[in-house]
Amino acid sequence: MDSGLLRSEGGVVSHLPTNFVWPKEYLVDAQGELQVPLVDLDGFLRGEEEATQCAAKLIREACLNHGFFQVINHGLDSCLIRQAHHQIDTFFKLPIHRKLNVHKTPASMWGYSGAHAHRFSSKLPWKETLSFPYHDNTSEHVVTNYFKSTIGEDFEQAGVIFQKYCDGMKQLGLKLTELLAISLGVDRLHFRELFSDGCSIMRCNNYPSCQQPNLTLGTGPHCDPTSITILHQDLVGGLDVFSDNQWKTVPPRLDALVINIGDTFMALSNGKYKSCVHRAVVNKYKERKSLAFFLCPKEDKVLRAPDEVIEMDGTKQYPDFTWSDLLHFTQNHYRADQATLPNFFNWFLSSKTTH
After folding, report:
1. What angle do CA 333, 219, 256 make, to 5 degrees?
2. In this structure, what DSSP letter does residue 103 have?
3. I need a labelling partner for 79 at 20 to 30 A (CA). Which of 35, 120, 302, 345 fits?
4. Given the residues 192, 288, 304, 335, the one annotated as active site
5. pLDDT digit string (tens) for 47-62?
6. How far is CA 66 from the centre of its chain?
7. Taking every annotated instance into account, which residue ranges of this chain make up the domain Fe2OG dioxygenase (predicted)?
């Protein structure tokens, strides 16, 4: 099964295959827009204390509520973002045999996937993805090399662009860990050392137009198991967040990046900050693209909430764990959804007692 299911030779598939059809309870329409704070990072990035405290306060309010906010003046060059969208558009328009040359195998997180059909057989998402690793622990340009060696020499320039894109995303992600630390009332560098030498995930998403968008989803309801997601979406729109018991949209802005807290950072905040359920819907007339960078901690570092936060709360909500433990769980045992974190800890604690 591959992205040939998403498109017919003549264009768009006219009849939705049954394995893409989602149960009705997943398909309830969104009601209005999510109230997402727009955080201007300019003063913070310049080192201005008042602007830093203002940004941290907005982020705290958002994370206590639903875990989503948008940032502007984030330091990423708008031209670079446009180039990244252009390059990934070129990749997704390749003939299917070229894309399948880099298909994601069951043992790997990296490569091309059409509807994640290599892992699942029902409730398939109406999308195709390209995922690749990013780290800056060596002098090697890991993203440039991935594109050149895996996709082909003709994608070397795409690799150069995405190397720069990921470099910028990683630096922004580290700065966001500082703001999150400030917002929690702990030393601003507390979380940074967890993430500075981690391997992050870059995922490019393409949601083709769909003749029956009321029957399927581009991405089903889930919480990100990672720590911090930095998303740039095009102007088609399609990101919904479940807040106050209803689905609400997050309208796209080309000058903004959407940030959301994942399960791992929810645990790092001792449960104070919310990892919120979200989904992607599809459009009958337009395809949609998004670029998602998932900031991840170093896999073997022990993750626990700061002592100050635990003392303030009075109770430690989660056992210590590592990102490699949670990653293994979501890749091998459990399809990420709104209950990933509690199910992970049940599995994690039971696996410890049986060894």
Report:
1. 120
2. B
3. 35
4. 288
5. 999 999 999 999 999 9
6. 15
7. 195-297
Active-site annotation holds for 335: no
- What does the alpha-carbon distance between residue 271 and residue 317 come to, in Å, rounded to a whole number? 7
Contacts of 320 (CB under 8 A, 6+ apart): 302, 303, 304
Q: What six digits make up the tokens of 17?
A: 């295959």
Read off the DSSP letter of residue 205: E
Distance of alpha carbon 99 from alpha carbon 114, whole angstroms? 9
The DSSP 8-state label assigned to residue 218 in this structure reads S
Question: Hey, which residues does 111 pair with through a beta bridge?
Answer: 131
Three-state DSSP state, 94: coil
Dump the DSSP string for 31-55: -SB----EEE-HHHHTT-HHHHHHH
For every residue of 114-157, DSSP letters joined together read ETTTTT-SSS--S-EEEEEEE--SSSS-HHHHHIIIII-GGGHH
- pLDDT confidence of residue 260: 98
End-to-end C-alpha distance for the chain, whole angstroms: 38
For residue 250, what is the DSSP state?
-
List Cβ neighbours of 199 (8 Å cut-off, separation of 6 or more).
Answer: 133, 134, 135, 137, 296, 298, 299
pLDDT in tens, 158-210: 999 999 999 999 999 999 999 999 999 999 999 999 999 999 999 999 999 99
Backbone φ, ψ for residue 116 (5° rounding)? 55, 30
Q: CA 231, CA 24: separation in Å to the nearest integer? A: 27
Residue 165, number of CB atoms within 10 A of its CB: 25
Give yes or no for a contact between 100 and 87, defined as CB atoms under 8 angstroms apart: no
On average, the pLDDT of the chain sits at 92
Pairwise CA distance, residues 313 & 317, whole Å:
9
pTM of the model: 0.94
Q: Identify how many contiguous H helices and E strands the chain contains and give both numbers.
A: 11, 16
DSSP-derived secondary structure for 149-191 = III-GGGHHHHHHHHHHHHHHHHHHHHHHHHHHHHHTS-TTTT
Helix (H, G, I), strand (E, B) or coil at 295: strand
